[in-house]
Amino acid sequence: MTYITSKKQKMTSRRAVAPIIATLLLVAIAVVGGSIVFVFSQGFFSSAQVSGSPNIESLKFTGYDASDGTNLLNHDGTTYLAANTPGNGLILGEDVSVYLQSNSVGKVTLGEVRFGGAVYNYTSSGTPTAGQYSVLTAGPGSFLSTSSAELQPGQQVTIVMNLGENIKNGRDTQFKLTTANGAVFVGTIIAGQQSG
After folding, report:
1. In this structure, are residues 179 and 57 in contact, taking their beta carbons and an 8 Å threshold?
2. Strand 118-122 to 132-138 pairing
3. For domain 59-195, is the CATH number 2.60.40.1890?
4. Does the predicted model carry a pTM greater than 0.70?
């Protein structure tokens, strides 16, 4: 009996090799898994890199003039003679101006401009008609005359929109600008007021 007991003691007194092997296997699996993730991510990031300079667009709304008056204030403090009739609210064919500043590294091309529920199209002719907008660069009458509405880095402008729909005074109205690259900038304009 002592022989069996001593053999049993020998077997239970020695540590098993299994926990050490299991630990080594887990470490090996973790290293292989980490290597696979590293190789995958390196391949993904090198193929996803954009050649050339980054094109980060940033526009800042610096104010607006949606007052119901004949003169609208511009971004540079001058006034623009609007086609508004004072006292009748903002109706179809009247003007609203929004001040923008480009904080982008490169030029920004304006795409879709929405005010309220209407979409406004760019015109380079100067004074916009109903459903159009133009870009005032300086003073009361210096409009952007390029074929597309492009803002240079750091440039401040006033977007003059000729309303394509009636807007009630005191109403918060969304102004949404989408660039040609798809960046979206949203601001709120209170009809009948001036800010900035």
Report:
1. yes
2. parallel
3. yes
4. no
β-pair type (118-122, 108-115): antiparallel
Give me the residues paired with residue 71 across strands.
81
Residues 137 and 163 sit within 8 Å (Cβ to Cβ): no
Q: Positive or negative CA dihedral for 121, 111, 95, 78?
A: negative
Q: Where are the alpha helices (DSSP H) in 50-169?
A: none
What is the rounded CA–CA span in Å between residue 91 and residue 2? 109
Say how far apart CA 88 and CA 150 lie, in whole Å: 34
For residue 153, give both structure tokens.
């880095």
pLDDT in tens, 68-109: 888 888 888 888 888 787 878 787 888 888 999 988 888 888
Q: What is the percent of the chain where pLDDT is above 70?
A: 86
